[in-house]
Design brief:
- The complex is a heterodimer of chains A (276) and B (186).
- In chain A, strands 1-4 form a two-stranded parallel sheet. A two-stranded parallel ribbon of chain A has the order 2-3. Chain A has a two-stranded parallel ribbon with strand order 5-6.
- The radius of gyration of chain A is 18 Å and the shape is globular.
- The longest helix of chain A is centred in the middle third of the chain and has 30 residues.
- Helix content of chain A is 62%, strand content 4%.
- By secondary structure, chain A is mostly helical.
- Chain B has 186 residues and is an alpha/beta fold.
- Chain B has six helices and six strands; from the N terminus they run E-H-E-E-E-E-E-H-H-H-H-H.
- In chain B, the strands form two sheets. In chain B, strands 1-2-4-3 form a four-stranded mixed beta sheet, covered by helices on one side.
- Chain B is globular.
- Classes of the chains: A mainly alpha (276), B alpha/beta (186).
- The interface between A and B is medium-sized, with 38 and 32 residues.
Chain lengths: 276, 186
């Protein structure tokens, strides 16, 4: 079986349409339109049930999470296989592979939960385009960079999304959404903690490798803060979940840095929409 | 039948086709029984998806381009999305132009409960015209506004399957689901 499986060969049926990063990021209208938002629109963009478009926004977001779960399963599975077992720089320790195998089990369960949640919310599988960015981050040839890009950056974003959507379900009185998010959130905290622990263990004597891994995480965090999606102000639809990130092994300084990256992305999104 | 005008005629930010939009709208006007001119003004500078009726005489709607877009293919037109959006909007317009329907408040003054209930009635009629609508999606919208309980689900079914309903019927549904929510809380 081949190692380092390329993203464009991932198996999907005819319902799914893949969107390239170029298509995703090069829309000339920008994420909020050329005017940078609707005239006179309020600054509070937090995804809450009182927004008129909230149910559809929640459906689209949860579909994005669903395809992310598929790719997280594929990525964790690849990490079990792509590296020889060992403690060398280009190897993966057996215990790390064991953690990735456990994560596969969790991600498979999340896929099943997401399919049932899609039915509940009236979303068809493949209704929205799929971006393969999560899996692409899981193709990095260095296992440590995979862990920072996927487990810390992308699974960290999942913590923020699940926390926001759990609150959404609670406010809307939707018990199914609230429970699904709560159960998946618990697993995500574990996955991010795995990433944090392995980052520190594998780079304990290699500060350059750690710096590279954290830089890769920063790049991924920035891309997924595109358009000011996630942050700490009410302008951001998804709230940075500080408490759960602490539980997942992030230091206060690291959480502050993600907040800064998100602010930067929000400013850039506003600038993209500003008249020239 | 009335004439459909779509603006802009030339597109710079999205790959839309005014003629295809007009064709879908024209067919809907006939099926819904609206013999009026219609202007559709699309704002192609935003990927967002809000739509609104800006005038009833003459009939005019304003659409952010995301509303007509294929969710799988950014910036590409989806005739199904056009039918979904305009079908809902035009059914509501027909209700407003029908003296027998009653006098609903202006769109901007509708509560989310009223608007979602009216949408359920409108989209249910689109389904009976043969358009591929998403019933469970509309039920999810409805539950978000009217409660996740059996009373709300039964009310939704009445709206979805309803014909010849009036504004008073929409208001009655809102009162019924509101009472059920209060009963659940207390």
């Amino acid at each position: 079986m081949r190692k380092l499986f390329p993203p464009d060969l991932l198996a999907r049926d005819g319902r799914f349409v893949r969107l390239t990063n170029e298509e995703r990021f090069n829309d000339p209208r920008g994420p909020r339109g050329l005017a940078g938002g609707r005239p006179g629109s309020k600054k509070n963009n937090r995804l809450t049930p009182d927004l008129p478009e909230a149910p559809d926004a929640a459906r689209a977001l949860m579909h994005g999470i669903f395809v992310g779960e598929i790719q997280a399963l594929e990525g964790a599975g690849r990490t079990c296989w792509d590296f020889e077992t060992g403690k060398g720089r280009e190897e993966a320790p057996f215990e790390l592979k064991l953690d990735m195998a456990r994560q596969c089990w969790d991600e498979a369960r999340h896929c099943e939960i997401s399919v049932k949640l899609s039915d509940w919310m009236g979303t068809e599988l493949g209704e929205y385009s799929e971006s393969a960015f999560l899996y692409e981050a899981a193709c990095n040839p260095d296992p440590v960079l995979r862990l920072t890009g996927v487990n810390r950056a992308l699974e960290g974003l999942a913590i923020d999304v699940f926390t926001t959507m759990k609150d959404f379900g609670d406010i809307a009185g939707d018990p199914v959404l609230e429970f699904c998010e709560d159960w998946m959130l618990a697993d995500e905290v574990t996955h991010v903690k795995m990433g944090s622990d392995w980052l520190r263990r594998l780079t304990a004597d290699d500060p350059e490798r750690r710096a590279n891994a954290l830089e890769f995480q920063r790049v991924v965090d920035k891309l997924f803060s595109f358009g000011g999606l996630r942050g700490e102000t009410d302008e951001n639809p998804i709230k940075l979940a500080r408490r759960f990130r602490e539980l997942a092994g992030f230091t206060d300084g690291e959480i502050d840095e993600i907040g800064n990256v998100s602010e930067e992305a929000t400013r850039e999104a506003a600038a993209m929409g500003a008249p020239a | 039948m009335g004439q459909v005008t779509v603006t802009p005629e030339e597109w710079h930010y999205v790959a839309f086709d005014s003629g295809r939009i007009a064709t879908v709208a024209d067919k809907l006007l006939g099926e819904i029984g609206l013999d009026v001119d219609l202007t559709i003004e699309v704002d192609e500078t935003t990927p967002m998806g809000r739509v609104s009726t800006t005038s009833f005489d003459p009939l005019a709607v304003s659409v952010e381009s995301g509303a007509f877009e294929d969710a799988k293919r950014p910036r590409q037109l989806s005739e199904q999305a056009v039918a979904d959006v305009l079908g809902r909007l035009l059914h509501r317009c027909r209700d407003r132009l029908d003296p027998g329907f009653g006098e609903p408040p202006a769109d901007g003054e509708l509560t989310l409960q009223q608007s979602t209930a009216w949408d359920a009635y409108a989209v249910g009629r689109c389904a009976r015209l043969g358009y591929p609508v998403q019933r469970q999606r509309r039920l999810y919208h409805f539950r978000n506004r009217h409660g996740f309980n059996d009373v709300a689900d039964r009310a939704f079914a009445r709206l979805w399957d309803g014909e010849g309903l009036t504004w008073a019927d929409i208001e009655a549904v809102c009162a019924e689901t509101d009472a059920a929510k209060v009963a659940t809380v207390s």
